[in-house]
Amino acid sequence: MNLPPKVTERAFQRLAQINAGKEPVPLRVAVAGGGCSGFQYDIRLDRPEGDDLVIEGEGQAVVVDPVSLPYLAGAIIDFTDELIGARFVIENPNATSSCGCGTSFSI
Fold this sequence. Notes:
Residues 6-102 form the Core domain. This is HesB/IscA family protein. It comes from Paracoccus rhizosphaerae. The protein has one domain (6-95): Hypothetical Protein Aq_1857, Chain: A (Sandwich), CATH 2.60.300. A hairpin with a 5-residue loop joins strand 2 (27-33) and strand 3 (39-45). The two termini are 18 Å apart. By secondary structure, the protein is mainly beta. The chain has a 6-stranded mixed beta sheet with strand order 4-5-2-3-9-8, covered by helices on one side. It contains 1 helix and 9 strands.
């Protein structure tokens, strides 16, 4: 059985900041075809649907659809705030290569 993705405390904290003062909307992490390496991440605020995996923490939630789940098995969803910018990042053990932008990968 594949391990579900994990979400860091830092990612949940950033999501809580984004949702501050309003009803929390989960962060959806999905994998779609495209990008310069074959697959790309689609990260956006979105409500859960049907069979989505819901990962909860810090009063927040991250959702992953069943089609994306195998591509994200064992991945770590984090948030980074660096000189080049602040963004949610994915450390994916399934990716055999990725592009410089970090949003496109191949398996």
